[in-house]
Amino acid sequence: MTVITHPAQPFPGQKPGTSGLRKKVQVFQQPGYAETFIQSVFDAIGVAAGSTLVIGGDGRFHNRAVIQQAIRIAAANGYGRVLVGQGGILSTPAASHVIRKYGASGGLILSASHNPGGPDGDFGIKYNIANGGPAPEAVTEAIYARTQVIDRWLAEDSADINLDAIGASQVGGMVVEVMDPVADYAALMESLFDFAAIRRAVDAGLTMAFDAMSAVTGPYAVEILEKRLGFAAGTVRNGRPLEDFGGHHPDPNLVHAHELHALMMGPDAPDFGAASDGDGDRNLIIGRGRFVTPSDSLAILAANAHLAPGYAGGIKGIARSMPTSAAADRVAEALGVPCFETPTGWKFFGTLLDAGKATICGEESAGTGSDHVREKDGLWAVLLWLNILALRGESVDAIVRQHWARFGRNYYARHDYEAVESAAANAVIAELTVALPALPGREFGPLVVEAADSFTYTDPVDGSTSANQGLRVLFEDGSRVVFRLSGTGTEGATLRVYLEAYEPAGGALDRETDNALSALVSAAESIAGIVRHTGRTAPDVVT
Fold this sequence. Notes:
This protein has 543 residues and is an alpha/beta fold. The chain is built from 18 helices and 27 strands.
């Protein structure tokens, strides 16, 4: 065993965001950049000698090079075993499951999630802890603090391993096991859902289209949807992971999954359409002629979860991020279980899941999951929808309409202003923060402000507090607008505006969303002055 100590200097800006450190590929390609960050992770967490580390990623450009270095650094820092997906592939939910199943102390997930890939695209590294979930803020702060003073990184002097051959090899005193990235995850899904009922529905004519967006879920979807559930070959589209995602922007929304949306709204639509993102933790759900918003999907899945074997005994609670619509709250009330409102970021669900307070969690950004792992899980959501469709024998549109008829409808949209100059985006938030106390009582067209605040969350399990998690403007009729800067981009800032209007059961449940939210859109502009600050007259993406 020969460990080399490489001198290093801190790189500025290595602060992990809500889902790790994300930068342009060219930034990560700087000599020592990835290495010093990985070493900072190991220094901050304190590696227990002989422990197990999971490594995997979404297959994007630069994954393999960083994985090889991560293996050498892990060996030099005292890990006893590394589990790595074949070809460097592990979806984010699959990595969470592997960490939990094999008792790993944590894992490195190499992904920039739904961001573009390729030599000119994005790259990212996220550390997940032993429960399989993203590192909490105390850990990410410790990592960042270490990046600011690090002066060396350690690596075993060894050759690259063969990432494409399943089996074990030795790197210094550490065992490296290249594993099938799909098998454990597929077995977990089969234990949660009624695969036999879904197969019967497929045999009876249920059809679907799944767009893997040339990203990580392709192999998982082919194995589960086509091989285990019997959907026709070709059901999975863009199923081979590519380093640049085939030129796709692997974000499963109506802009970037427009081909799937066009198919599902057309005359030859299958019964069910779905897509997933770069690292497999987000989902898009579309029925024939019916797009299901992520907020509605969360509520409908929670209301029907008992139809799946894994949730037949009912759910303990629901958790949603603050910007997600309150549709899930009404389901929780009907079920007699709590609903928790947290900041954006799956890590905030971890303590609730570990404490048994919540079973199903979701975010409006198309991330939904349950207590089976500690990450959001795109394919899990797709399979629960299939389980519901198979047992209810109704269309997606019928299920959605029946849900609204019972619980009412939360008209909802998110407006994303992407790559906004950081100074301009910060000015929007700063000016609005100052204005919040004076907003209650003000009228904006037909809307009257009831309350306005900056969202602060106190974790009911560990008592930790997270402030400045988004600015909320609440109106007397139950409508609301939320303003928030996103931490998932790699250049400039993404300003997100969330708009929600509630229509009770028996009301006007079939309006066009744009029409239902038009007064809120006008109010949001009057309140925040986005055009004035940024020059943007329209959002880049509407979800």
